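Task: sequence design from structure.
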């Protein structure tokens, strides 16, 4: 089964909470190469949203450098770069066969979508929306698949936020690593279904997980 993944060159755009767990899962997957991109520095809130050990000296380094150090001894083919991705970053994506978009700003997501759609690279975009109405946290996790032949159509459906709105509770709550890990797991499982590693009953392109009732709703191409 691992041979179904062995030719893939994976890009992970954004190495924050969900991106860090996506990297961790993909590092343990038999893909040929993993390229990661994030221009931000590693701070204490990142430590709460990332798997693995923590060294005090990591604070203030780029996220790319921190995770490169953590995974370089685990496997070959991991190349993490301290840079942001926008519509002009095509040179860094030569040979990429699949991408995971793990950013939390709508404007950044819009530019990344333009790049990946223009290059014809299939990708999964993840998102998390949390809220609190005087009580416990509630919200949704999302994983949306953009196949090259439908990516422009999917972009126009508004499943992913492409504008910068008011900050939600995600940025102010660090003790939600399990949600980051679950969001990443949904995306990676869906990718492995697309590659024939896991059974696929329906060709789902949009997954939503409701935190309140722990239910997952999926939409197929025909339902979107």
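Answer:
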């Amino acid at each position: 089964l691992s041979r179904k993944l062995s030719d893939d060159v994976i890009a992970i755009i954004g190495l924050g909470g969900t991106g860090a767990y996506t990297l961790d899962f993909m590092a343990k997957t038999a893909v040929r190469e993993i390229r990661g991109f994030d221009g931000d520095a590693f701070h204490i809130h990142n430590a709460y949203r990332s798997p693995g050990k923590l060294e005090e000296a990591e604070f203030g380094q780029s996220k790319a450098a921190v995770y490169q150090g953590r995974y370089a001894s685990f496997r070959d083919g991991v190349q993490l770069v301290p840079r942001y991705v926008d519509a002009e970053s095509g040179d860094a994506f030569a040979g990429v066969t699949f991408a995971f978009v793990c950013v939390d700003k709508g404007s950044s997501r819009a530019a990344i979508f333009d790049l990946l759609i223009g290059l014809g690279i299939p990708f999964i975009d993840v998102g998390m929306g949390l809220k609190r109405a005087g009580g416990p946290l509630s919200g949704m996790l999302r994983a949306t698949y953009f196949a090259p032949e439908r990516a422009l159509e999917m972009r126009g459906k508004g499943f992913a936020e492409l504008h910068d709105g008011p900050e939600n509770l995600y940025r102010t709550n660090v003790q939600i690593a399990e949600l980051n890990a679950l969001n990443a797991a949904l995306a990676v499982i869906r990718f492995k279904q697309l590659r024939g590693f896991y059974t696929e009953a329906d060709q789902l392109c949009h997954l939503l997980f409701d935190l309140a009732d722990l239910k997952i709703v999926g939409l197929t191409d025909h339902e979107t």
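The beta strands are 9-13, 33-37, 78-81, 98-101, 123-131, 138-146, 204-210, 215-220.
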